[in-house]
Model the fold of this input.
Amino acid sequence: MRALLTTAFTLLISSFALADGAFYGDPPDATHPWAIHDMNRAQPAVVTPGTFSSNEQPGKPPSDAVVLFGGQDSDLSKWEADKNPAEPTKWVVKDGLLQCVPGSGYVRTKEQFSDCQLHVEWSEPTDISGSSQGRGNSGIFLMGQVEVQVLDNYNNPTYPDGAAGSVYGVNPPMVNPLRKPGEWQSYDIVFRRPIFKDGQEVDPGYLTVIINGVLVQDHTPIEGGGGHKARSKPRAFPDQGPLKLQDHGNPVRFRNIWYRPLPKRAIDGGDTSHMSEAQTAAKRAEIAKSIRDDAADKQGNDKMLRLLESLVYEPNAEALSQGTAMAEKFVAEMKAVPADKLESKKGEILHVNGAFQYLTKFKLVPETFTAASELNAIVKAQEWDKKKK
Ligand code: MG
Done:
């Protein structure tokens, strides 16, 4: 049992040692600036998650959310009348809830933003009146440009591309997961704005919408943002815009409104995924330089390996020449160690050898980098390359 545990422990340690990020997974390529399992990549920012809402009580937003309405009277100062922004909105905060006052017009945030994860909760009037589009109608306008419909469709049919959860005039919700009027409903929306370059659409923009935990829009192309009766055509959106809530003549109530800005898409200058070859080359150069800068503060093998690691991202004559000289010096030192004393150097040699073999395998160093074959010869002579049974 102890032997088994020791083996497991050794395996654990060796996999950690290998997984230090360098010389491990497939190297970068023309459209991927990072290696597979690359520790040079930034760690995801730590976010403290919020809590879920109950019917009685709104939940807490995650720690990095921008709160647009959190239930305080003072939150109303974050909003303004859409028609006459100079005037305060006539919407009211009552019992910690933001309420539409029919006839007061749309309300909009002073905050301007674009791509986001948006959370909104709403509750329909229990005093049921009207039908179809006339019952509990409001709306969530992302950037003021495209409406995700708010409507009381609990036992109230309407045209499906105008139902709650629709991208109004564009696409119906997949299903109707609405609760009764008076109960609290939640929207979780992922919004990506359309992007045009030189008048050409390069990304249609998308909406993903979840109502009460149920997916109703799955990455739906925005097609210009929709509209009433008219079929909209793809169009560019501004860079930013306010969130607007619609006054459609019904006293719909809202609570717990927050958003999290999303990182830019590659097409928009971000470095999240699907980068162009030019973007990738620029990013690889940036990563290589940061590694060379880091190497400048290091000594010995740490410095050598960091210099050589930079070559994984971008060829660099100075880093190659310095790294090669250090590699040759290290190998010469190891060759000078008597065979029966080499065991104490085993960890260090295997670590460096792993790096050298990686560089050779992926042709990241020229054939003149003979330190790799010389060090590997020592490993083979010691039979350190043989798997233990
Ligand atoms: Mg509406």
